[in-house]
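batch job 7 of whatever, protein = histidine kinase
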Amino acid sequence: IFAILLVFFSFVAFFISYFMSKRAMSPIIKSYMKQREFAADASHELRTPLSVILSSINALEMEKPLQEDEFSNSVLSNMKYEVKRMIKLVGDLLTLARSDAENTKLRKEVFDLHELSKKVVHSVETLADEKRITLKLNAPAKLFVYGNRARLDQLLYILLENAIKYSPEEAEVKLELTLKNEDKNKMLVILVEDQGIGIKPEERERIFERFYRTDKSRSKQLGGHGLGLAIAKWIVESHSGWIHVEGKSGKGSVFTIKIPQ
Ligand code: ADP
């Protein structure tokens, strides 16, 4: 009888604690979901007015009297710079808010990553030229991979833009793409190497956190919000891959990404 009572009471205790914990959890989950929705809605709503402000600034820049006035010119160009930064920030926040949604499944297809990476390299050429940085792309003539084209485009852009941003003038930035067999699995390996300011070992995990920026990069006032690598990590993980960074002997950093194929 004692054993039966013991089993009976432990069942009752188990069910009570199970339902209590469910009841206690649901407001937390609800408020988390509300917060997530709020972040997505707010970023989405902010995009339209910011784009309107940007096109108004562009229109003002075309005005002859303003073009001829040095002060108006510099005010307009400052405004334009800040609005562009905000548009970028809002876009990044929206991407991360959407990435938090559990039902975000990336649509994947087979496509030539070499072709795509040539396009990305081309899109960062102006940035590189400003600092006379040499961009090198090393990849097989055709590199068919399985993934989300738009997100892999964004991933390469984030890494190349950072490599350029955190490098001195006349440095070299290398993008290398390969397909490798690892433990009988095919892996897409992406390497982005730079000769820049480098990242201290104790900061190499933290740079993938949202809004984290190293002191070195803050002091250089290079702009940025510390969201790029958080997005990069989300993109890689939603392809079931992983990303990490190492220091390079001498100077600079190497970002390695592996994505199963
Ligand atoms: P940010 O907009 O600040 O560049 P990221 O999330 O892309 O944001 O990067 C986070 C931080 O990681 C940067 O602020 C910088 O301190 C560091 N970082 C990223 N890429 C590099 C790099 N190639 N070399 C040195 N530091 C880097």
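notes: The chain is about 55% helix and 20% strand.
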